[in-house]
Amino acid sequence: MARDIPFVDPHIGDEEVQAVSDVIRSGKLVEGEKTRSFEQKFAKFTETKHAIACVNGTAALHLAMEASPLQPGDEVITTPFTFIATSNSILFTGAVPKFVDIDKDTWNLNSELVEQAITPKTKAIMPVHIFGLPADMKAFKDIAEDNDLFLIEDAAQAHGARIDGTHVGGFGDLATFSLYVSKNLISGEGGIITTNNDELAENIISLKNHGRTPKGGYEHIQVGYNYRMYDVTGAIADIQMNKIDNLLERRKETAKQYRKIIDEIPNLGYQQIPNGMTHGNYIFAVDTRDHEIKPEEAVKKFREKGIMTRPIYSKLSYQQVNFKNIGNWRWAKFVDYPDYNTDNCILAEQIAVNHFEIPVVPSLNKEEIEKVKSAVSEIFT
Ligand SMILES: Cc1ncc(COP(=O)(O)O)c(C=O)c1O
Fold first, then answer.
1. Residue 287 is inside which H or E element, if any?
2. CB 126, CB 135: distance < 8 Å
3. pLDDT at residue 1, as a whole number
């Protein structure tokens, strides 16, 4: 019987199984050889000086925030159209998320609006490469330099995303990637931070390992965490690096076919890719803003055809209950938060309720891709 066509399907082969088994048999389960090898491959892949692995993408964001010069109460400008970990990580250290609207075509943070939103309290910008499409990092880099702001790329979804041929991860002061099971490159749970700054790299290595000195041992020079990667998961990521180009190519080819079919359907759309940008194709999202069929109905119809689809961020970050109840957060006693109930990023709100993902995982075979394409045509024409 044909399988339901999935939107998450970890691409794990015999090599990963062998690598994990080797680590388990070696008894060296904590961060070690495999993780080091993965880090080296990832730095090469992203053309960055340092790549530092850790337990997951949220920990990577937390470490980035801890390593930044941000003080409690400082504002960090970010997008509300993202996974909640982006803004949560800003809250972790007492900084204050300031949400700015997204671009109507790319669905990424709008650089012009960011520039207008800067106040004396603004100390950092955190763009997200949403669904794998790079944010306008050249503009953000200029804005950050002109206004003396720290720049963190949330690249959790953006393995394979490039700007004028350069991989994301080195445009900001720091960048963070997730290796969660659904991502373009996986380890199950996992994260990695990239930077071209030696000092930041050294600090992050210490912060993720109990604030140790580079020598290791029981010398602790600052408060730190235990966010080390397991070598078992490092081994999976290490093998995945050998396949990443192929995995990305398959996603790219499928996404290209979807764009072609959607171009033929009136009033249906997708995220637009600006010139010079390469989409990592982590998620292929259909845009129903101008179509009478909305995501909820579409998802049901795809389901009847054995195709799994889903809306992603139908609630923006500031629409989540944790922001509605921000007064309950431990830092609320010490810093002033804006009234997030009055935030209204109009374009983000429209896209939030008017997009859903269709499967673009590398395991799709030719027939499955054709089945998804036919379903898109039938449901929306
Ligand atoms: C944009 C974004 N930021 C951060 C994260 C957090 O990564 P993790 O799930 O590995 O903690 C994710 C994960 O899905 C994400 O999509």
1. strand 284-287
2. no
3. 80
Place of tokens 């290791």: 216
Tell me where in the chain the CATH 3.40.640.10 domain(s) lie: 14-240
Per the prediction, the chain carries an average pLDDT of 97
In terms of Cα–Cα distance, which of 138, 132, 171 is closest to 153?
A: 171
Ligand 1 centroid–CA 196 distance in Å is: 22
Residue 99 C-alpha to ligand 1 middle, in angstroms?
Answer: 18
Q: Cα(369) to centroid of ligand 1, in Å?
A: 27
Measured between alpha carbons, how far is residue 327 from residues 324, 340, 343 in Å? 8, 11, 16
179 Cα nearest atom in ligand 1: 10
Q: Which of 7, 8, 55, 58 to mutate to test the pocket of ligand 1 (most atoms within 8 A of CB)?
A: 58
The string of pLDDT tens digits covering residues 255-296 is 999 999 999 999 999 999 999 999 999 999 999 999 999 999
Question: What is the Å distance from ligand 1's center to 216 Cα?
Answer: 29
- Which pTM value belongs to this model? 0.98
Atom of ligand 1 nearest to the CA of 183: 14
Indicate where the chain has its CATH 3.90.1150.10 domain(s): 244-312+351-380
Atom 8 in ligand 1: which residue has the minimum CA distance? 57
What is the 8-class DSSP label of residue 327?
Answer: G
pLDDT of residue 216 exceeding 90, the answer is: no
Ligand 1 atom having least distance to the Cα of 58: 11
Q: Which fold has domain 14-240?
A: Aspartate Aminotransferase; domain 2 (3.40.640)
Q: Taking the mean position of all CA atoms in its chain, how far away is CA 173? A: 16
Q: Say whether pLDDT at 214 is over 90.
A: no
| Ligand 1 shell residues, CB under 6 Å | 56-58, 61, 82-83, 85-86, 128, 154, 156-157, 178, 180, 191
pLDDT tens, residue by residue, 229-264: 999 999 999 999 999 999 999 999 999 999 999 999
Catalytic residues: 183
Host H or E run for residue 294: none
Instruction: Give the architecture-level CATH label for domain 244-312+351-380.
Output: Alpha-Beta Complex (3.90)
